Amino acid sequence: MFVVIGGGPAGRLGAMRLAQAGAEVRLIEQRKIGGQCLHERCMTICALNDVARLVEYARTQKDLGILDTVPAVSYPAIRRRICEVQEKLSSVLDAETRRAGVEVIYGAEGRLEGNRVYIDDEEVRADAVLAATGSRPAVPDIPGTSLSGVYTYRTLPAMPDLPRRMVIVGGGVVAAEFAHVFRAFGAEVEIVARHGLLGNLDPKVRAAALRDLSGIGIREQTPVASIEGAGRVRSVVLGDGEEIEADAVMLATGLVPRSESLQGLEKGPDGAVTVDSRMRTSVEGVYAAGDVIGPPYLTPAARREGVVAAENILGHETVMDYTGIPWAMSLRYDYAFATAGAGGLTLSAPAPAGPGSFWDVAGGWAGVAQIRVDPETGRIVGAAAGVPGASTLLSYIGYLMKRGVTVDDFDDIVEIHPSTDGIYPLARYAAGVLRKKNE
Fold first, then answer.
1. What is the CATH number of domain 327-438?
2. Where is each FAD/NAD(P)-binding domain found (predicted)?
3. How deeply is 330 buried, as exposed, middle or buried, from its count of CB atoms within 10 A (0-12, 13-18, 19+)?
4. What's this model's pTM, rounded to 2 decimal places?
5. Which CATH superfamily is domain 2-137+256-313 in?
6. pLDDT in tens, 58-90
């Protein structure tokens, strides 16, 4: 029998792969299947951002004289309906997992002591174990984080209604996504980033994303000294002594692997379980995948890691390859990225107008597309887009990059029209540039 600890993307996909191979598999999940992706992170952002975009598009069309009003948002109703849909999705995932032949046990804790496996306090036999216990929000060591009104993505469902003024602490994707949502809903939002905001993005793509965050106060290179309030949050004090009024504070300050229940394994300083390229830990017969092994903290990566672990448990030597795995950010537009190598010639261009961006042309904007090309081989080694539908587009572009696609290969592609995809024409343009250079 194989035991999988954790029912998020890595554990669930790994368990299903094992069961589909005919193995007896027991999956242990303390809460609900689907993990943080379904219940607190990815799907919550999808739900909130759908509403935020609707409001923003209505606001744009009202400014153009097309609509008479902009709809008001009922935040309590949004939260209630999100929970209802998440329950439905969780039941679908539960049924799918069981149909694959996996035994699912809820409400129990799976633990490891080296190669010894426990479900709560009962030791069980296991031929191999896949540990996929996920992560939790990192809470910075700042006075006042325990005040009422201070939230992480995990506790945000407890926020009863929209705040008048919200401060979001953090400089990454989560900070940007929630800031966009609550600004669209009508709150005054300030982002306070200890370093930079979205500093890992290409400058042109970052500039495009910042357009979607217009109207939001952004303070970079700014530490937070404390969060103040008498029982409930009242303000945020910055490192220079400035005080910002706030009804709510959201901590978007990263993730920490949840590995406390996994003892006897080699770990990094942050608690991330150390694995090799086959997802093997330092203990024979024990594998790990997903957020518990540390960055990149991406659902697509976690899913693949879970499958790679399962394949190796089954004796099929498989190596984890992160090439071309896309990641995304949801603002007014989708922002998606994939890479298959370093360096190269970077080409950027405005994206064509299409579904979701037509009316934005009136304001002089329809998004951005970008590729990086190896000038010697013509291979695409990086791609990014900030357009409606970018997430779907980059899934396929990332796969093609992994397969070694070149800009010349795009000559014969006939894409859908109308479309917001600017990568295909940019690739064709790059092919022409390289041909001319080599003549």
1. 3.30.390.30
2. 3-306
3. buried
4. 0.94
5. FAD/NAD(P)-binding domain (3.50.50.60)
6. 999 999 999 999 999 999 999 999 999 999 999
